[in-house]
């Protein structure tokens, strides 16, 4: 029982970062119809940015986190402006190929700059874990959970309460009508990609210190984000949030009770099962965001 | 006269080992040819039915593992106490099993994933490849996991007048791979030119319309997936018995990307496309490796992929065909009219 409780707590913490990854990807897909293969690399970039700022430049850990998210947004906006804007109107396979190319370039640039060895990020949190009854949680993980949940909440507010969010929802529902109503579609696309990338970078920056930072960490992150998004239905933010937590629970329980070797395979099994039973995702009633 | 180009290319393929004596270049040529077979099989799906399958390396890997395991033998215990023992078979049987195993998994994946299209389809196929990689990594009893399957024996063929011949020699292996490659090419050519091929192209162009005129869409897609997977499995078997060691890294996504780059560079949906793209990306590493680290090499690959989509979206072969057409007739406008009236006549 205690063991199960420990798994559940771990899954909750992991799930909050998975949800961030999933929301970022599903926003981009829902609004722009782009399968973003660079998502995992932006996740890795977030982790590396924290490492670079903290270890090499001596920036405070919390400030480094914030800067990493901004870097993620900026790189995302740059990708959108340079690669996707000229391709507007191209079919989904064409943009997919371009994003795969961008993904290969980014991953190998990271490998070239930082080398293949994994990096550890120091945090100001005490080593001694917090003990609540039979459960142990490190302070760092609690911090990850709090920030993760706060960012999820902030994204919801942004989409549902702000003017930008309203324009994003309008673009999602009907791009042409939104454009006729004076929504700057190009601007919305850039903003969407920047926000989605920022969320991926945030997830990477938060998980980087928990695990190690490696050049290939983005691959699995991309694939997991795909799994989460399929689970929740492409373009569905609530679905992606729940999907993130579900994937984390399944992984944690699967690794704990079935086989730890297949931990990262759980997401793919979920994809295959979900697509067999409910191809539009678990939470899809009608496609909409917000 | 119509057969002259085909004869020329066959002769060219057959005479390469006569002037190419350098063992290293011969090695590059063999691996390139193996990847061209895989790229041709991917082209059947990507180019002719229009389905972007990003899990193609799974069939290549399944073929490699099936072939290696058939040849090496294994002894495993399944859950429930069943024990499966398999004594080593000759490598040629491994080739057959590889084709069958890959074809079967192509059938299963086709049945499963053609329920969905577009982005969903792409993600299902990636997931499938990743699951096969994890199985190869974790089912240590069968696959040796990260320790890899070693000492895979070479093919042995009974050749009249020679007796049993073992394919150790690089030149002999080149002819074997080239033979399989030519067969693959001809099969795809015949398939694409047939009723089945026209149905596949029709459903790429307009799936609802193809369905409405009575083409059983899923049946043809699954058929394409089976044929394509079986060919990739054959390539995998050729690879396994050539390098003689395979590990779970054979399932890495990057190999699928290599095949996709070959197909789109050469020209998807053309017969010569994967061959042209395959030769370029097979020999590009040789050119690059003298001055570029592997990471730089991959950066160049990725950048090239983006550039090609922007500059030559249809690929090299269709572009060259267009240029040569406009070069032959000084007035391109007239040529277009002629071409379209010719198309109407046919």
Compact overview of the structure:
The complex is a heterodimer of chains A (290) and B (346). Chain A has 290 residues and is mainly alpha-helical. Chain A has helices spanning 2-32, 39-56, 61-84, 92-114, 139-161, 163-173, 175-180, 185-210, 217-232, 237-257, 266-277; strands at 130-132, 135-137.
Please explain how this structure is put together.
The complex is a heterodimer of chains A (290) and B (346). By secondary structure, chain A is mostly helical. Chain A is 73% helix and 2% strand. In chain A, strands 1-2 form a two-stranded antiparallel sheet. In chain A, helix 2 (39-56) packs parallel to helix 4 (92-114), helix 5 packs across helix 6 and helix 5 (139-161) packs antiparallel against helix 8. Chain B has 15 helices and four strands. Chain B has helices at 4-19, 23-49, 56-72, 91-113, 118-138, 140-143, 170-193, 195-205, 207-212, 217-243, 253-266, 273-288, 294-311, 316-328, 332-345, and strands at residues 74-77, 83-86, 156-159, 163-166. Chain B has a two-stranded antiparallel ribbon. The radius of gyration of chain B is 21 Å and the shape is globular. The interface between A and B is large, with 41 and 39 residues.
* Helix/strand class of chain A: mainly alpha
Q: Considering DSSP H and I runs of 4 or more, what fraction of the residues of chain A is helical? A: over 70%
- Number of β-strand runs of chain A: 2
- Name the average pLDDT of chain B: 82
- Rg on CA atoms of chain B, Å: 21 Å
Helix content of chain B: over 70%
What would you call the quaternary organization?
A: heterodimer
Number of helices of chain A: 11
Compute the number of strand runs of chain B.
Answer: 4
The proportion of residues in beta strands of chain B is under 5%
Q: What is the makeup of the main sheet of chain A?
A: 2 strands, antiparallel
Mean pLDDT of chain A: 85
Number of helices of chain B: 15
What's the order of the H and E elements of chain A? HHHHEEHHHHHHH
| N-end to C-end Cα span of chain A | 37 Å
SSE run of chain B? HHHEEHHHEEHHHHHHHHH
Unreliable parts of chain A:
286-290
Main β-sheet, spatial strand arrangement of chain A: 1-2
């Amino acid at each position: 029982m205690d063991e199960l409780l420990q798994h559940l707590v771990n899954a909750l913490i992991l799930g909050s970062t998975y949800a961030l990854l999933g929301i970022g990807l599903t926003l981009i897909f829902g609004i722009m119809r782009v399968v973003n293969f660079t998502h995992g690399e932006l996740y890795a970039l977030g982790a590396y940015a924290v490492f670079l700022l903290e270890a090499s430049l001596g920036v405070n850990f919390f400030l480094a986190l914030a800067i990493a998210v901004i870097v993620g947004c900026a790189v995302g906006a740059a990708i959108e402006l340079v690669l996707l804007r000229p391709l507007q109107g191209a079919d989904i396979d064409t943009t997919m190929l371009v994003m795969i190319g961008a993904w290969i370039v980014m991953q190998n640039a990271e490998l070239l700059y930082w080398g293949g060895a994994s990096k550890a990020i120091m945090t100001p949190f005490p080593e001694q874990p917090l003990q609540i009854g039979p459960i142990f949680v490190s302070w760092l993980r609690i911090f990850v959970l709090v920030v993760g949940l706060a960012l999820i909440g902030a994204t919801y507010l942004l989409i549902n309460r702000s003017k930008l969010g309203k324009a994003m929802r309008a673009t999602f529902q009907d791009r042409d009508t939104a454009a006729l109503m004076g929504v700057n579609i190009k601007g919305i696309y850039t903003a969407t990609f920047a926000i989605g990338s920022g969320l991926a970078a945030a997830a990477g920056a938060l998980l980087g210190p928990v695990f190690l930072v490696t050049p290939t960490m983005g691959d699995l992150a991309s694939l997991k984000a795909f799994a989460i998004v399929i689970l929740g239905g492409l373009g569905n933010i609530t679905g992606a949030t729940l999907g993130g937590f579900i994937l984390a629970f399944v992984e944690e329980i699967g690794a704990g009770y079935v086989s730890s070797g297949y931990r990262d395979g759980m997401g793919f099994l979920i994809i295959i099962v979900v697509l067999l039973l409910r191809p539009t995702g678990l939470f899809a009633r009608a496609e909409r965001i917000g | 006269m119509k057969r002259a180009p085909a004869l020329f290319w066959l002769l060219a393929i057959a005479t390469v080992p006569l002037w190419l004596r350098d063992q290293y270049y011969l090695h590059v040529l063999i691996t390139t040819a193996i990847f061209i077979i895989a790229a041709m099989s991917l082209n059947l799906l990507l180019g002719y039915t229009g389905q972007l399958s990003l899990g193609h390396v799974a069939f290549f890997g399944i073929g490699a593992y099936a072939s290696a395991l058939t040849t090496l033998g294994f002894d495993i215990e399944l859950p429930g106490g069943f024990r499966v023992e398999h004594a080593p078979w000759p490598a040629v049987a491994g080739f057959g099993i590889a084709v069958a195993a890959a074809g079967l998994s192509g059938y299963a994946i086709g049945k499963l994933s053609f329920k969905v299209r577009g982005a969903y389809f792409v993600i299902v196929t990636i997931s499938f490849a990743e699951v096969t990689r994890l199985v190869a990594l974790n089912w240590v009893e069968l696959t040796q996991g990260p320790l890899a399957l070693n000492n895979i024996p070479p093919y042995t063929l009974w050749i009249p007048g020679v007796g049993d011949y073992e394919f150790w020699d690089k030149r002999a292996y080149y002819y074997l791979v080239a033979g399989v490659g030519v067969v693959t090419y001809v099969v795809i050519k015949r398939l694409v030119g047939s009723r089945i091929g026209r149905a596949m192209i029709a459903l790429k162009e307009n799936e609802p319309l193809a369905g409405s005129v009575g083409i059983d869409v899923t049946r043809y897609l699954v058929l394409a997936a089976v044929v394509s997977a079986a060919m990739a499995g054959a390539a995998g078997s050729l690879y396994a018995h050539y390098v003689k060691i395979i590990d779970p890294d054979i399932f890495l996504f990057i190999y699928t990307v290599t095949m996709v780059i070959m197909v789109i560079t050469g020209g998807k949906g053309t017969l010569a496309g994967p061959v042209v793209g395959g030769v370029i990306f097979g020999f590009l590493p040789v050119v690059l490796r003298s001055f570029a680290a592997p990471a730089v090499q991959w950066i160049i690959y990725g950048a090239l992929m983006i550039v090609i989509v922007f500059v030559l979206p249809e690929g090299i072969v269709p572009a060259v065909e267009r240029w040569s057409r406009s070069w032959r007739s000084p007035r391109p406008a007239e040529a277009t009219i002629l071409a379209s009236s010719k198309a109407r006549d046919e």
